[in-house]
């Protein structure tokens, strides 16, 4: 039996959308597949039927019957996936709230870390925006990016133009260019490492449950998968919010609908995300 408290269970149920018997956006089939991928257990094998047949009741039964390490592993995967779902929904609707700042997410993540035996994160352990922007990049190692070489000169030229835009105060242009470069780099990384990208839990699927072709992935999905496989660190994922929706800002009416009007600070965060991502990807280099 896990040691989840009453309050932790309520926060998890809130974040995982377990009202009405559901769990996130899972169907019965995808819920079964997700649980098996995460912990190699068939959630519908009969052991977890005590509370009823819904997905939510199977999950509640699971965390009552299994110990902290197993429950922690499954909930870690679910909370990470739930964050991706929430961020994709916010991007689609133009919601300006940040899902990772919600009380339900923070409490759920702390509960997961406790189950796994990790210390609760503190402010000192988390990368602050100030710390992130304080990073210095003497050079950006484009030539060591583990992607197809013919695209590199174009990426470097776009990067130089991005810096010119930022220095000239063309903040929207700097954001859009930063997003386009990062998407190109991650697309190239996916093409160079198709197995790792396509087998990641965060890899997007179509309505039939098949992994989408790379040209159908959003930047947010590339970032989530790159983080999952270790190519991007948490700081880049954390501060990539404005870049994730860069395509929306290309069209004036989309920009008007979202109310997005980046200032120099926003552009600086986006450019720093791009620089840090390139450095992290070159350091990772396609490790399995």
Write up what this structure looks like.
The model is unreliable at 121-125 (pLDDT under 50). The protein has 14 helices and no strands. Helix 1 (6-15) crosses helix 5 (103-115) and helix 8 (171-192) packs across helix 10 (219-228). The radius of gyration is 20 Å and the shape is elongated. Helix content is 58%, strand content 0%. With 288 residues, it is mainly alpha-helical. It has helices spanning 6-15, 28-39, 55-65, 68-93, 103-115, 129-133, 152-167, 171-192, 194-198, 219-228, 234-238, 241-244, 252-258, 264-284. The protein folds into 2 domains: 6-115; 129-284, Four Helix Bundle (Hemerythrin (Met), subunit A) (Up-down Bundle).
Secondary-structure topology with pairs:
Elements: H1 6-15, H2 28-39, H3 55-65, H4 68-93, H5 103-115, H6 129-133, H7 152-167, H8 171-192, H9 194-198, H10 219-228, H11 234-238, H12 241-244, H13 252-258, H14 264-284
